[in-house]
Design a protein that fits this description.
disordered N terminus; single chain; about 30% helix
């Protein structure tokens, strides 16, 4: 897409993509937010509902979340992931289908959906960066900067906490770095955290945690597939090497499952490579038309929250639709909420965290911000929107 110019900024824009045409995640029946409540319901935890009706209850449950491993990327690389490829038919309770991440398809949002069993409109982490209505500042919800009281930002108990109260052994096995982060506290706390540096140690510890109780809910995590994708792209040699490594980790854990166990391998989002040229990377910081009336730019390149200066929201919405509406689903806050992008409902405390305008990429494009987001603007692999490459994630199953 050509950059705007003073003499003829954006000539003859076609009709924007209708908001209702966006493929909304399967909240309530087939999303990441439905996984732990389904497992906890099978363990007899009060108040939990089995939204993923395809899954069969087990006494010992382990969720292995591989950051950045989308359904389409896994299916495209069978030679690098032979073990997980052999499990594709087991996905989603043997239906052979994926589940959806939720919007936006980004780590902070998805981990909160997994751990709380709630969609983004309820747990309140609706983007990579969002405005804090109390301070007016952009808050990075992955790094928790600037700091905000975690319990006020996300007040609901996690599924792990509810399971622990019900007498189920709950445990998380991840990098020691994550043991006390605010994101862990609001999304994945409850029971016991076990910090392990290597992937192999995490697999062995997760298996031991399953075996140590008659009823168990265990979570483990691997981040490096996502990191390789961001830096080098999802078809790079480095990314393929990480996929092959995590495939061996999945097999290692599967081979150690104690009796009456179920292992579920899933992800927080998929990923898409975006070419490094002006047609595919639109620079907000260099486009005077897109910047007009905008106080803060939140979200990330494929899932933007746009916060307007007072009184300018309608003008910003009109402009963004004219400029980007061919390649992005562009909605007002209320339109995005009504369409169910963030779940069936949005809590009052979350409402103003969502942008006055919300823009989700449909095509292979990014809305970068080269000056205010230099590191993010240089990423090869990206995610966040509602395309199948980003939304669809596996739910592979191994039972003992």
């Amino acid at each position: 897409m050509a950059q705007s110019t003073v003499w003829d900024p954006h000539p003859e824009h076609p009709e924007p993509i209708p908001v209702h045409s966006a493929p909304v995640p399967e909240y309530g029946t087939g999303s990441l937010a439905d996984l732990l409540p389904t497992l906890a319901a099978g363990l007899g935890v009060p108040g939990m509902t089995a939204g993923l009706a395809e899954l069969t209850a087990a006494d010992r449950n382990c969720v292995f979340l591989i950051d950045g491993l989308g359904w389409e990327q896994l299916r495209a690389h069978p030679e690098d992931a032979p073990f997980m490829t052999s499990l594709l038919g087991s996905s989603r309770g043997g239906t052979g289908r994926p589940i959806t991440a939720g919007y936006p398809a980004t780590t902070a949002t998805s981990l909160a959906s997994v751990g709380t069993g709630l969609p983004p409109g309820a747990h309140g982490l609706p983007g990579y960066t969002v405005r804090n209505p109390d301070t007016g500042e952009l808050m990075n919800q992955l790094r928790w900067q600037p700091w905000s009281p975690p319990g006020a930002w996300q007040p609901y108990p996690t599924v792990f906490e509810l399971a622990h109260r019900a007498g189920v052994h709950a445990a998380q096995v991840s990098s020691p770095t994550f043991s006390n982060t605010p994101l862990t506290k609001v999304a994945l706390s409850g029971g016991v955290f076990h910090g392990r540096l290597s992937g192999e140690d995490r697999m062995d510890t997760a298996a031991a945690q399953l075996a140590g109780a008659d009823r168990a809910l265990v979570y483990t995590y691997y981040a490096e597939v996502d990191g390789a994708g961001h830096r080098f792209g999802v078809d790079s040699d480095t990314w393929r090497g990480q996929l092959a490594h995590v495939d061996r980790l999945v097999q290692r854990l599967a081979e150690q499952l104690p009796p009456r166990s179920a292992l579920y391998v899933t992800a927080d989002h998929g990923m898409i490579d975006v070419p490094f040229d002006e047609d595919h990377r639109i620079d907000f910081d260099e486009d005077w038309e897109l910047k007009a009336g905008v106080a803060l730019l939140g979200g990330e390149g494929r899932a933007r929250h746009v916060y307007a200066v007072p009184g300018a929201a309608n003008d910003v919405l009109t402009c963004w639709r004219e400029v980007l509406g061919e390649q992005f689903w562009v909605a007002s806050r209320d339109e995005a909420i009504a369409a169910g992008w963030f779940g069936p409902t949005v809590d009052e405390r979350v409402y103003h965290r969502i942008g006055d305008v919300v823009a989700a990429a449909r095509d292979d494009v990014l809305l970068i911000a080269s000056e205010r987001e230099p590191r993010e603007s240089e990423m090869a692999g990206n995610h966040g929107s509602m395309t199948s490459a980003e939304q669809l994630v596996p739910l592979l199953e191994v039972r003992s």
